[in-house]
Amino acid sequence: MHELSLCENLIEQLEELADEASATMVGRVDLKIGVLSGVEPQLMATAFGMAQEGTIAENAALFIEVTEPVIQCHDCDQESEVSPQNLLCPHCGSESTALVKGHELILARVELLGSRRDARG
Ligand SMILES: [Zn+2]
After folding, report:
1. How far apart are CA 8 and CA 49, in angstroms?
2. Domain tally for the chain?
3. In angstroms, what is the span from residue 35 Cα to ligand 1's centroid?
């Protein structure tokens, strides 16, 4: 499963972030997944549940926001949100468009909890 290796990378990132912040736990993770990224949000959630076991993110809640595709038209220069099945420019009908959003997998927000520094020290 493609999503599992993505989650393993994600956990590594979280461990690094937590380490830098001297945090002991990850409380919450927000991901943005583009509908054209090739990542299944449902599979990602399942894979995260498997990957987080025994890590700093063991108790982290995962939130996934699915982002719709946004294209920029090369002919009329407009940016538009479109459906994944139809990447034509809705303004002028041009096929000459570039995907500016919707293919990404972004770690949007991480909530870190706790501190390794002792309260007394
Ligand atoms: Zn256009």
Report:
1. 11
2. 1
3. 21
In angstroms, what is the span from residue 105 Cα to ligand 1's centroid?
Answer: 26
Give the separation between CA 119 and CA 121, rounded to whole angstroms. 6
Residue 9 forms part of a structural domain: yes
Q: 79 C-alpha to center of ligand 1: Å?
A: 8
Which domain CATH number covers 20?
Answer: 3.30.2320.80
The model's pTM is 0.84
pLDDT tens for the chain, residues 1 to 121: 689 999 999 999 999 999 999 999 999 999 999 999 999 999 999 999 999 999 999 999 999 999 999 999 999 999 999 999 999 999 999 999 999 999 999 999 999 998 755 544 3
**How far is ligand 1, taken at its centre, from the CA of residue 96, in Å?**
8
In sequence order, the β-bridge partners of residue 73 are 97
